[in-house]
Write a structure and sequence with these properties.
The complex is a heterodimer of chains A (352) and B (261). In chain A, 7% of the residues lie in helices and 43% in strands. Chain A is mainly beta. In chain A, the strands form 8 sheets. In chain A, strands 1-2-3-4 form a 4-stranded antiparallel sheet, with no helix packed on it. A 4-stranded antiparallel sheet of chain A has the order 5-6-7-8, with no helix packed on it. Chain B has 11 helices and 2 strands. Chain B is globular, with a radius of gyration of 22 Å. The C terminus of chain B is likely disordered. The chains are: A mainly beta (352), B mainly alpha (261).
């Protein structure tokens, strides 16, 4: 009798733990994706997409009306002509009315999560999916062409001069024709690319890789020009400004590298792992770290000021004329806004 | 502590197997499950022996006499039972302790598979922190090749056939069947099929396959593959030890109640 009761009890405990492990451990989670357009900040996080006023952090709308944790919105929304384009973790790309948050259309052909943000150029939407495909849609959500890489696409592509630069987890950076998706070149950079490449005015394209390298390529041919070895994996996009490339790595080091030859200019200890791209502001370069540090650095690597927020910063800030907004994970607040001197302006928490 | 002792070593072994079998994550999951089952095999044997000893004891005349004699004196009954355990050299925890030791290992195995199937940036970031870079190369490992047969192990599985308009959840069906088979084949006859615990056990035998099937239907197929591998290896283990009750599969077959005097 007792033995059978133990078996039943054990099975129930086992079942409960399995369920708990599944709902908690395997839940599709990632960090918030933040986009700024005009005077509205759009943030995708968990079961909702929020539109928040840049001026005061007030909620304008949220989609859906009641959060849907099953969906999982984490890719930064893209904004186009009154539409907000945002993908979820159940493979649906949504077009929302930018003013009201009402759903306009959905694209459901993808068979993988929308981890990377879509890019809007002109009237086209370039949407990278983790099903390995880059889907190019028109404003009504109709497919124009698709390009299939060998592995998942987690990063927003970049378009310049009618060329799409598409980073992939398959270690390759692809250059495609905007018109029809024809592959112009593909270069294996030696490691998975999690975030977007950066382009400069000097015909160079830069990518950070999980193989701990920053790689510079010729934008025309895809030829590797130089490699820079960081201390750990590079997650964020490189930031290019005035002949220098700035990146942070998981070791918590921020590097300044010469764009011309890949030589090291300076490095700074950020005090925590860096996964987010830096951003250029009138005061200097700003970086966020996993342990919630915000650092403003001068262009020669001096710390101008530091701030700390409660939570983790994994993505780059959205920078406006007089302020910047960070998405925060695992904190009380989802968004925090600072001026360029490091003074907090407002914060936004997920409505309860 | 949990991560250091269980998850990190498990993930590294799983990834090591993955590199050894030509970057095939499906085979790696199966071999890793087999490896863990082999390592914990002595515990399984001990558990089976302990359970068998307890089962034999419940048929023992002295045990049954005690039950009848101290039916209304629970404390006294417990004392007498302990005496009988000592006399017969039976450890009542012999079947329970190995299960308790195996339990965190099974949970660790399950969590390692989940973590290794990293399907979002934060999951990948967490996975990379578990990888021992001195013997595994992150640049070659990431991204993991999650294709196995017709499945993407990071996605729920459906088999699409040209003449059927919807995908068939083959793996979820196999999970239901193997879980059911495992629970039926490993079940030992209960003392009295009409008592409450026996009914609960029977209900669990129905409930668990569907629970596991639902998980397999909705979660990544890498986990479903682990469920199937675990079930099949478990059945194989019991078969090798000659402990499978094939009669339980026969329709209308009811375990014989133990006669009490």
């Amino acid at each position: 009798m007792k033995r059978h009761f133990s078996i039943v009890l054990f099975s129930f405990v086992m079942g409960s733990i399995l369920l708990a492990a599944c709902s908690g451990g395997f839940a599709a989670t990632s960090w918030p994706g933040v986009t700024l357009q005009g005077d509205v900040v759009y943030v995708a996080y968990g079961g909702s997409v929020f539109a928040v006023g840049l001026k005061d952090g007030s909620l304008i709308w949220q989609f859906p009306e009641k959060p849907d944790a099953q969906k999982g919105f984490y890719a930064a929304p893209a904004v186009l002509d009154g539409q907000v384009i945002v993908g979820d973790y159940v493979n649906v790309l949504h077009s929302l009315d930018a003013n009201t948050g009402a759903e306009q259309w959905t694209f459901t052909q993808a068979k993988g999560r929308w981890v990377g943000s879509a890019l809007v150029v002109g009237e086209r939407i370039f949407a990278p999916s983790s099903d390995h495909n880059l889907y190019v849609l028109n404003q009504q959500g109709k497919l124009i062409w698709a390009f299939k890489a060998r592995q998942a696409l987690w990063a927003q592509p970049v378009v310049k001069d009618n060329v799409v630069y598409l980073p992939s987890m398959d270690h390759s950076l692809y250059a495609l024709s905007v018109e029809d998706g024809r592959q112009l070149w593909a270069t294996d950079v030696g490691g998975a690319i999690v975030y977007s490449p950066a382009l400069d005015g000097d015909n160079k394209v830069y990518v950070g890789t999980l193989a701990n390298e920053l790689v510079a390529l010729d934008a025309q041919s895809g030829k590797i020009l130089w490699r820079f070895a960081a201390k750990n994996s590079i997650w964020g996009s490189p930031t290019v400004d005035d002949g220098s490339v700035y990146i942070g790595d998981l070791s918590g080091t921020i590097f300044s590298i010469s764009a011309s030859d890949g030589s090291s200019q300076w490095q700074v200890d950020a005090g925590g792992p860096v996964t987010a791209a830096g951003a250029v502001t009138p005061q200097g370069l700003v970086f966020g770290t996993e342990n919630g540090n915000i650092l403003m650095l001068s262009r020669n690597g001096q710390k101008v000021w530091t701030q700390t927020v409660e939570g983790k910063i994994y993505s780059s800030p959205a920078v406006a004329d007089d302020r910047m907004v960070f998405g925060v994970m695992a904190g009380e607040k989802l968004l925090v806004a600072f001026d360029f001197s490091g003074n907090p302006l407002w914060s936004f928490a997920v409505p309860k | 502590m949990w991560d250091t002792l269980i998850i990190t070593p498990f993930i590294n072994v799983l990834l090591f197997i993955y590199t050894m079998v030509g970057n095939n994550f499906g085979i790696a999951i199966i071999l890793f499950t087999l490896l863990i089952r082999l390592v914990t095999h002595p515990l399984t044997v001990q558990q089976i022996k302990g359970a068998a000893a307890m089962q034999d004891l419940q048929k023992d005349k002295r045990w049954l006499d005690l039950q009848a004699k101290y039916k209304n004196e629970k404390d006294k009954l417990a004392q007498e039972q302990m005496k009988l355990y000592k006399e017969l050299g039976i450890n009542p925890f012999a079947s329970c302790l190995p299960t308790l030791i195996q339990f965190p290992i099974i949970i660790g195995l399950y969590q390692s598979v989940i973590k290794t199937l990293a399907n979002s940036p934060i999951e990948l970031l967490n996975l990379m922190r578990h990888i021992n870079v001195s013997f595994l190369k992150v640049s070659e490992l990431i991204p993991l090749n999650s294709q196995f047969l017709w499945m993407d192990l990071g996605q729920p599985e459906r088999l699409n056939l040209p003449f059927i308009p919807f995908g068939i959840p083959v793996l979820a069906i196999v999970v239901v069947v193997t879980t059911y088979l495992q629970s039926k084949l490993m079940a030992t006859p209960t003392g009295n099929p009409n008592d409450q615990t026996a009914m609960m056990t029977n209900m669990m035998n129905i409930y668990m396959p569907f629970l596991m099937g639902y998980l397999a239907y909705t979660l990544a197929s890498g986990l479903s593959l682990y469920f199937v591998a675990s079930n099949v290896i478990g059945i194989g283990q019991y078969a090798l030890l000659g402990k499978l009750n094939w009669k339980n599969l026969l329709p209308g077959q009811k375990p014989k109640p133990v006669k009490s005097k």
